[in-house]
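@channel anyone free to eyeball this complex?
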Amino acid sequence: MARKTGSHAEITGPAIRAAALRLFARSGYAAVSMREIASEVGVRAGALYLYTPDKQTLLFELMKDHLEGLIAEWRSMDVLGAPPERLEKFVKYHIGYHFDRGDDVFLAYMELRNLSEENFATVEALRRAYEDELEAVLAAGQSDNTFEISDVRVTTRAMIAMLTGVHVWYRDGGRLSRDSVLRIYWDLARRMVNA
Amino acid sequence: MARKTGSHAEITGPAIRAAALRLFARSGYAAVSMREIASEVGVRAGALYLYTPDKQTLLFELMKDHLEGLIAEWRSMDVLGAPPERLEKFVKYHIGYHFDRGDDVFLAYMELRNLSEENFATVEALRRAYEDELEAVLAAGQSDNTFEISDVRVTTRAMIAMLTGVHVWYRDGGRLSRDSVLRIYWDLARRMVNA
DNA sequence: GTCTATAGATGGATAGAC
DNA sequence: GTCTATCCATCTATAGAC
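replying in thread with the prediction:
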């Protein structure tokens, strides 16, 4: 962790973001100090300001980059298959993302309150765009009668909440394997739309 | 809001708790100052310490009292009906509680990270006890084959997450009435267990 | 690029007057 | 029961040395 004085632009920047992500996710944005982040990286607090104009921007960019990546990656893999296949793919993609990047997902979910008004609007639009990806799948299935859904919008929100909840309890090495969890949640999602 | 100096023990105590609840839910525990709470109540910060030993205890008691009430009220109304009826009752009870006491539910859900180790253990046990109430209903339905569930524990958690998510988007006066929301979520929950 | 030092603000909590 | 005043810790962010 500790590091001697010198030039390390290539590693310090990402290290700061990684430390901030981990600490924000664990303790909450407001409860984490810049000194704490710096200490985790092995620099002094002042050095952080070479990489971010302020703490708020650090939080905002973590959330924004995460959500943009989440959406872009999904769009790159969503194909025009039948709605049930697309839904299965979405469910497993979403939960798989939680397995590997749980802190990112958690942060984007928990720290909305600590964004400035302007940053909140940007992040909220991204969250809505991601939700719309699932909603499009459900709507497609309703149109061709492979799904039976009473309210597409509410079902979308309910399903996202259900899937995101996996981060509350899942830990690697526990009672269930990742594959088991994927199977169970896909089964629940499938039933929610009568597929 | 502002109030003259004098004795107001009967109203100041509850007013402090109400203000703290609202502010903690809106901005997060760590982001709210004791001065802010006091200002909302119409007293100075020092006066708060006549009613709570410290800020941490204020948070803890809000969460603890809410969860104890949530569990006690449910236990007082859960009867030994058939599992599908009991599940319907639970779903509507849980969401109904969100409608009327959204801040309490939100707080107990979001501020776990800001509890001291000891307080966390207490609150976590209460949360688990509430989860167990739903799990008992699902397990009963699995035993008598009115439900078809692949993993009772995971289904319990998934359902709680789904139901709790209603607080993210529901607002009175929106597109859907409370009754519509209850109906839609009950339908989703019913499908999750193939009832 | 990082450090030391510090300005300037704000935080939780307490003491003592009323 | 509440207020004023304040202690002391801590915070974000900046300035200037290296």
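from a first look: The mean pLDDT of chain A is 95.
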